[in-house]
Amino acid sequence: MEILQKIVFAIWDILLDSSFYILMGILIAGLLRVVLSPTVISNHLGKGRFASVFKAALFGVPLPL
Q: What is the DSSP letter of 62?
């Protein structure tokens, strides 16, 4: 039972440590949703094969940073 309690506390600590970054990610995603319309995104990423994959990779690289 003690091991289960330690696991739950460790999960809670990780959630508390990452909650700020999760909230910031949700806020930025909401702002991007308001600013960029889906048609703009589909125009840039929906055409062709190589160019759209290159653009998606280029925009996706800084996201984890």
A: T
| Distance from chain centroid for Cα 7 | 26
Domain ranges in the chain are: 23-65
Cβ distance 45 to 36 under 8 Å? no
Percent of the chain with pLDDT over 90: 34
Helices (H), 1-65: 2-35, 38-45, 50-60
DSSP 64: -
Give this prediction's pTM. Answer: 0.56
The CB density around residue 41, as the number of other CB atoms within 10 Å, is 13
